[in-house]
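Tip: read the tokens left to right.
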């Protein structure tokens, strides 16, 4: 059974850092592009970052460029999202998602992903 499980969320002060993990199972991560999305209360879900396969090309939303960094460790079946210089506006539930249809293509920040995790809450507040 294909699964994605996010972890690493929590409460952090503005300017702090968190690293989210997306642990996958039931499929070969090498064959999937992975995206990170977030949804704040009362707002639509938005794409934050993504990483392609093969090659590991990355893409970021303008709002997080230079602060967030996505990486993948296929051997560990895990994708990471390093979030630095966090702001209150980054508060949201963060989701990872995977798509085999994007294999060999540039990943996208649109909802073109097939498999989704359950999300992890990130709260940035003093």
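Filled-in amino acids:
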């Amino acid at each position: 059974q294909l699964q994605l499980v996010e972890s690493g969320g929590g409460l952090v002060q503005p300017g702090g850092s968190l690293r989210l993990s997306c642990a996958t199972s039931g499929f070969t991560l090498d064959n999937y592009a992975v995206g990170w999305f977030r949804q704040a209360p009362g707002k639509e879900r938005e794409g934050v970052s993504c990483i392609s396969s093969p090659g590991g090309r990355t893409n970021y939303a303008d709002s997080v460029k230079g602060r967030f960094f996505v990486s993948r460790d296929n051997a560990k079946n895990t994708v990471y999202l390093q979030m630095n210089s966090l702001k209150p506006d980054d508060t949201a539930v963060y989701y990872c998602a995977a798509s085999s249809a994007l294999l060999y293509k540039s990943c996208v920040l649109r909802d073109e992903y097939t498999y989704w995790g359950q999300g992890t809450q990130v709260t940035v507040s003093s």
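The chain has a mean pLDDT of 95. The first strand starts at residue 3 and ends at 7.
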